[in-house]
Amino acid sequence: MSVFLTRSFNTIRRYLNVFKMNQTITTQVLPCNPSSISFLDSDSQPVISDEGTRASLKSAVHDLVSLNVPVVLPTETVYGLAASALIPSAVAQIFTTKGRPADNPLIVHVSSLEMLKSLLPPSFIIPSSYELLMQAFWPGPLTLLFPAIPKIPSIVTASHETVAIRMPSHPVARAVIAMCGMPLAAPSANTSGSPSPTKADHVAHNLSGKVRIILDGGPCGVGLESTVIDGLSPDGVLRVLRPGGVTVEDMERVLTVEGQSPPRILVHRRDYSDETLENAPTTPGMKYRHYSPSIPVVLLLTSTPPENQAALSLPETFSIILSSYPPNAPVKIGLLTPSDSSLPFVLSRSKKYAEVELQWDHFPLGTINDPSLTGQRLFDGLLTLERNGVDLIIVEGIEETREGLAVMNRIRKAASEVHWVDSDKPLP
Ligand code: TXA
Ligand code: MG
C-alpha cells in the first residue's frame, strides 16, 4: 500500500513540476550597491553597509538555499544564472531556463580558497602554475580546470573528467556565494547562443518571466567571460580553451619566475588544434554557435591581409553584403568599430548603395589602443544595436593582442560573414 501511495505522490509531483515549468514567473530586479559590500579577510562573510543591498542579497540567498531555484547575479565578467552546484535539481533548472544543451558543462564559482579546498580531494596537489595564477588573478576572471570532484554532481560537468572552477571578484557574486556557504554553478545569464549580458537590463529583456530574481549590480567591468585554462596535462603546458578577461600577456608575466623556465601557454586554434577536443561537446564555444544576436553579424578586417588573401574594396564588399536585401526597402546597418576608427566616417557618408537606401547606427567601442574597453562594450554593443532594430551589424576587427584576443574570439563566433577590406576606396 505504502509503495502504491509513494508512486502516486511521485506521479502527482511530476505533473506539478511540468506545470511549474510552463508557468510564467514574476521577475524582480533587485538593486545592489557593490561598493557597500566588503570582506574583512579572504574567507569571511561579507560586511554590507547598505540596507537595501543587504535585503536584495538576502532574498537571492533565500531563493538559492531554501527554494533551490536559480538567481541572476552580476559578476565582473558577465551576468551569471546561478544555482547550487551541489544540488542536481537546482542545476537542471539552469539548463531549462537557458535552453542549454545538457552536454555543455558549467563553471563552479567559489567565494574563497577555503571553499575550493573543501571541494578538492585531500590527495590533489594544486599545480604550481595554478598557485601562481590564483595568487595573481583570484578573485577574478580566470577559470581553471580541476579533476572531477565527487561532491560536484555530473550534471554540472556534463559527466566530463574535469570541473571548471573560478572565484569571481564582483562583490555581489562573492557575497552571495559566501552567504550561501556553498559553491554556485553559473553560466552566462542569457538564452543559449546569444550574446552574454553585461547589464541587468540585458538579462531582464532576455529572461523576464523565466527567473524570479535578477540582482542589479550595474554594468560588468570586464564585459567578456573568464579565461578558461586547462593546466592538468602531464606536460605542464597551460592550454587556453577560451581567451577571456585575463590576458595571455598578463599570465606570461605572472608565470615568469626568476631562475625557472615558465610553463608554455598555448591558445587553442591559434597555437594548437585538437581534433578530439573540437569534436567533444564540452569545450568552450567549440560545438555550439555563440554570442550571436538574432540578426546577421559581418566581420570586416581592415588590417593588412595575409599574403594568400586579397582585400576587397568597400564597394565590392557592400555588393556582397547587400546582395540578399531587396532594393526597395532601406537597410539599417549597425556599426561596431573602435571609437577612433575612420570606418564610420568613410561608410556613413553613403546614404545609398546601388539601389539600396542605407541607414546607419554607430556604437563606438574602445579606442584602437584600448582593447580592454572594447571588451567591456562589445556585448552591450551587439545587444543594443539588435534592440535598436538594425537589420545587420558590421563589426570592425581589432588586433588580436591583450584583450583583443578574447574580443576577436567572440566576434568570429558571432559572425556569419568575414571580409578583408581595403577601406581606402570609400563607397560612392
Ligand atoms: O565569466 C564567466 O566565465 C561567466 C560568469 C558567469 O562566471 N560564465 C560563463 O559560463 O561564461 P558559460 O557557461 O557561459 O561558459 C563556460 C564555458 C562553456 O563554454 C563550457 O563549455 C566551458 O566553459 N566549460 C565548463 N566546464 C568545462 C570543463 N570541465 N572542460 C572544458 N570546458 C568547460
Ligand atoms: Mg555563455
Summary of the model, kept short:
This protein has helices at 2-22, 51-65, 88-98, 113-119, 128-137, 154-157, 171-180, 200-207, 248-255, 275-279, 314-322, 343-348, 371-387, 403-414, and strands spanning 28-31, 37-39, 46-48, 71-74, 79-84, 107-109, 142-147, 162-166, 184-185, 213-216, 227-230, 238-242, 265-267, 297-301, 312-313, 331-337, 352-353, 356-364, 392-396, 417-422. By secondary structure, the chain is α/β, with parallel strands linked by helices. Bound molecules: threonylcarbamoyladenylate and magnesium ion.
Give an overview in words.
This protein is α/β, with parallel strands linked by helices. The protein has 14 helices and 20 strands. It has a nine-stranded mixed β-sheet with strand order 4-5-9-6-8-7-11-12-13, sandwiched between helices. Strands 15-20-14-19-16-18-17 form a seven-stranded mixed β-sheet, with helices on both faces. Strands 1-10 form a two-stranded parallel sheet. Helix 2 packs across helix 7 and helix 13 packs parallel to helix 14. The radius of gyration is 23 Å and the shape is globular. The chain starts with a helix and ends in a 6-residue tail after the last strand. About 2% of the residues have low confidence. The structure holds threonylcarbamoyladenylate and magnesium ion. Magnesium ion binds next to loops.
